[in-house]
Amino acid sequence: MRALFHTVAPRYDFVTRAFSYGMDLRWKRAGVEQAHLPDRPIVLDLASGTGDFSLLVHRLHPGSRSIAVDLTERMLQIARSRGLPDAACADAGGLPFPDATFDCVFIGYGLRNFPNLKQALHEIQRVTRPGGMLVSLDFFLPENPLLRRLYLSYLYAQGTFWGLVLHGRPRVYTYIPDSLRSFVSIEDFSTLLGRNGYRQLAVRKYILGGIGLHWAAKEAAQTQVSARKRASS
Asked: Helices (DSSP H) in 94-168: which residue ranges?
């Protein structure tokens, strides 16, 4: 996966806009605007790509600090060239930050690429302050079986087209539907958040449930302890 993203990094932003018909930045802006961040927040831009979420946070919240983290150094080089000096190459399954560091963790199209989603959610929760936010924008499987088949076919056709046009390799961008086939629906992910110490505050669906934007808050420590006691009684 690291080698794949090294290849697509220079075209990553273009393809992201193409797949979303130009709506991608609007969705990300909504994610930041409705995250209810405190003054001068410290945020983690996980699976940052070239740093879109970080740039939006800086623009909308002067005095904020954002750390961009991605598995691919070439993505981070582009992020730094866009004016983001705080960038680190790291795996979501083992984040190099102390507990309760961030007011919010933003993730753009990263969840379905994590080898162990539950471990990644555990790490995200660990580095988030009690009451802090998780904001995720990602592809999801539509609940309706017919829509699911149509959506995967559409993504495959788009990926094949842009792979040929931009790289001369039709399979380059078909990793998107390939990674999605074993992923979950928006509703299933909402349930998973609840099981991993988050209160879902809102979810917004796009493209008939093929794209989901989640806002969730990490439960306070006392709330988590009470929930574990109820579960064990």
From this structure: 117-127, 145-167
